[in-house]
Amino acid sequence: MFANLHRQWDAPRLPASSSALVNNRYRLGRKLGAGAFAKVYEARDLSSGDVVAVKLERASKPYPSLATEYAVYEKLARAHANIRGVPTMRFYGAHGSYNAIVLDCLGQSLATVVDKQKRRFSMKSVLMIGIQTLYILEGLHHHGFLHRDIKPDNMMPGRLDPKQIYLADYGLAGQYRDQWNRHIAPMTNVGTVGTVEFSSLNSMHGRELSRRDDLESLGYTMCFLFRGDLPWTGVRAHGMQALQRKVTEAKSGCSLRTLCRNMPHEMIGFFQYVQGLQFDECPNYGLLRHLFRHALAAAGHREDNIFEEWMSSFSVSDVTDDSPAHSYDEPRHFQRRSLPEDAPQPKPIAPPQQLTRKLTERAPGARHTERDVMLYRWRRERYMHRTRARAMERGATRPRGRDRSLEWDPRAGRIPHTRGERRRDMERGHRERERDAERERKYKARDTNREREKSRRHTERHHARKSYAAKAKAKAGDKMRRKTTTKSPRKHAERDPDYPHRRHTDAARGPSPRAQRDGRRFHRR
Predict the structure, then answer these.
(1) Lowest-pLDDT range, 173-177, 266-270, 375-379, 468-472?
(2) CATH 3.30.200.20 placement within the chain
(3) Does the keyword Nucleotide-binding apply (predicted)?
């Protein structure tokens, strides 16, 4: 009850007149939806006549979510990244005491279709929604952004193009690279970001989010669209902390078979791959899209981007106040930037089907079939992927161009890595590891022998220098001893017969100075 009162008091209240102009160009109309701190109105562009959506939020909010959305749209526009599935921002600025952002008007959210209309999506539609969302996430992650709030409420078809799914509401978006283009460090106790029902296990445990968490939230969203609910949807508790604790226990204890019941086994492989990613590891988006496309082919469907027949009735702008077209959570902090009037509009990127058709038309001669063209394209993508990988290993910070990694092998015509191939890969990897270990032991033994030989030579040189010094010292000592040795009286007596008599006569006079110097006592006559 208090939460509803808080929302009613805190939501923007516009004048009764619906003819208010935003930026003297967009005339406000009926209300499309409302969230925690913002309201969405339908408006018409007086210059072009297009129908747009205007989102209003109080400017006095300490953590405005519109500033976050504006920062994301501005950086994507400056990078000329026109990602299919990301709404186009037309204006951001002040409107009285509110902040306003003008976006493309979209259809109803997928959550509205499931909850209010009691509809469920077929497996074909769920897989195609997953493929399109993977393209959107790959573009966002390539430019350094994380959505961090992927759920059915933020996914909706285009108003005029029901074949394209749009990912909206970037109020909780964040960057996973710093100003030096380095991946942020993993942190703990950062709190839960996003919606509890669709957030990843890392977010529930209070860890820092990365690219893998957006993919995990996408997997929960696909399960919700197919099942109509999740195993922990009916969890109730008193207080937000108790609810988060119970939902965390339910998510941790739920097996993938229970979560992906009646769904293709590729969904289990999707979760296993995503949950096995490291914090700063770049996902292989092409491999994940290949899994979904293989599931489509196994069920006998084509990737024609044609959803349910009743989807067209929800793509037009016929929503009412009871069925909001957009859903918004509480805003979070993000740095506010300067305001540009008009963002640059780059050329749209051609979809993969158009690229394939152009390559087929350019094939020289009738002998080049479409399979040959696809094989050439696959080899080219493989070469570019390996080139970028080697460049990243050498220290490159950012690969040139868009990194579309290898998605499928046209020579095989089926999903790679079957049970036999996995066994052969394991055996091949075991042999390679043994060969690497043997090479490492060989190099280590060679280095050890070199160190031993070096130590032996050093010891020999040391002993040689020591023996040479000892010999020189002994030789110098012998020379000094020969100089200072005195003649004994016995030798004088043997050479001089009168020695005893002269000894008594010369003893009184004593030795001469020369005798003292030469060491001879009886030299003076």
Answers:
(1) 375-379
(2) 1-105
(3) yes
3-class DSSP assignment, residue 509: helix
Among 10, 104, 149, 304, the active-site one is 149
- Annotation-wise, does 466 bind a ligand? no
Q: What is the pTM of this model?
A: 0.59
Work out the pLDDT band at 368, boundaries 50, 70, 90.
Answer: low
CB 133 within 8 A of CB 270: no
Asked whether 363 and 372 are in contact (CB, 8 A), the reply is: yes
Residue spans in the chain of domains classed CATH 1.10.510.10: 110-316
The pLDDT score that the predictor gives to residue 88 is 92
- As assigned by CATH, the class of the 1-105 domain is alpha beta
Tokens 């007149």, residue located: 17
Instruction: Count the residues in the chain.
Output: 525
Distance CA 403, CA 194 (A): 28
Bridge-based pairing state of the strands 89-95 and 38-45: unpaired
Amino acid, res. 280:
D
The answer to whether the CB of 522 falls within 8 A of the CB of 515 is yes
Q: What is the structure's pLDDT at 392?
A: 67
Half-sphere exposure of 302 (CA within 13 A, CB side): 3
Q: Is 231:258 a contact under the CB 8 Å cutoff?
A: yes
Percent helix / strand / coil, the chain, rounded to 5: 45, 10, 40
Element (H, E) at 487: none
**Is position 149 annotated as part of the catalytic site?**
yes
Cα-to-chain-centroid distance, residue 397: 13
Token output for 131: 């493929």
Beta bridge partners of 158: 106
Q: Is the distance from CB of 248 to CB of 201 less than 8 angstroms?
A: yes
Amino acid at position 399, single letter = P
Q: Is the pLDDT score of 362 beyond 50? A: no
Say whether domain 110-316 belongs to CATH 1.10.510.10: yes
- Which tokens sit at 209? 């989010």
